[in-house]
Amino acid sequence: MPATLFTPITLGGVTLPNRIVVSPMCQYSADDGSMNDWHFVHLGHLAYSGAGLVMVEATHVTREGRITHGCTGLYSDHNEASMARVLAHCRTVSKNPVGIQIGHAGRKASTQVPWEGREALGPGESPWPTLAPSPLPFSETWHTPKEMSKEEILQTVDAFVASAERARRIGFDVLELHSAHGYLLHQFLSPLSNRRSDEYGKERMKFALQVARAVRETWPKERGLGARISANDWAEGGLGPDDAVTYARELERLGFDYVCVSSGGLVSHAKLNVGPGYQLPFAERVKKNCKLKVRAVGMIADPDQAEAAIAEGKTDMVAMARAFLDNPRWVWHAAERFGVKLDYPPQYARARHDAWPGSKLARPSAKGS
Ligand SMILES: Cc1cc2nc3c(=O)[nH]c(=O)nc-3n(C[C@H](O)[C@H](O)[C@H](O)COP(=O)(O)O)c2cc1C
Which residues form ligand 1's pocket by a CB distance below 6 Å? Predict the structure, then answer.
């Protein structure tokens, strides 16, 4: 059976060999924004997973914009050098494109890493003041952010551009603006977090589009440029799928190549309706209403489900996060299921089921190796 999942797709000037994307995943393991050996191993092994694109985790454009002390950043020369080392390593093990997501946490900054509680940093944990469109905390127990001045807004636009320039120098193939999950760009977009009375409140897309325009100007056309967008705040008075379409169309007008359609994360009282492929209808809605390439994400973990989503025209690509943590060989196994031959790293070629005489499905014991 021919699998659309394994057909190439082009984003800007970058061709992905297949439609499977490793979703960006924070590792909360950096040192003052800089990658280290954890990222070297983590991204190195995902680089030869066979995915058409590996997205590097949300990487923050300022030190204060980090979610946690362990988040990656691209705000210093050391950050840039540490990331260049990791990307160079990925290039030695795979030819597949690698992208990076850049963002700013806004009012969701200065929090504990998940395994320490995911709460706002306490007085003994080196917290820092946070910024947001309006002085509204994410929840009662989180930091109340300072309302950003016009000057701080413009400085943040410049910080996005500076990080995009660092990402370009490092050599990433794809750049993605994080404007979902309740982080700064999303905070400006949603009426639940943006209560400003100035032009940035009257026109809630203004800040995000200012960043998008500035990044478009700096990011080469021959590479891929996209954004992660939110299609549902899952809370009364918040953004919904139509807002995602409006925003996606604006990004298209600015010359973006794709959007990844996600949802949630803006307010602590959100009530998400989660289940297999739960965000796929949002991706489909955006795809039907703009010309951007669309990536779906969210509880897509089964190869048949992923294949159907693309074959039925609901999305152009699928991204997966937890499925890759659980099974970094997801792509290899999906390829075998659909009878597609992938280039395995030669060192691992003997893992392929058809490399074992006698059985296509059962992996024999190590005898005779
Ligand atoms: C460990 C972990 C870290 C994540 N970090 C990010 C991130 O850096 N940026 C982002 O946009 N989403 C992040 N997410 C969300 C995922 O990219 C994805 O959208 C979400 O997990 C739903 O997909 P899944 O059901 O395939 O896991 C993270 C998810 C996990 C599990």
Answer: 23-26, 57-58, 101, 178, 181, 228, 262, 297-299, 320-323
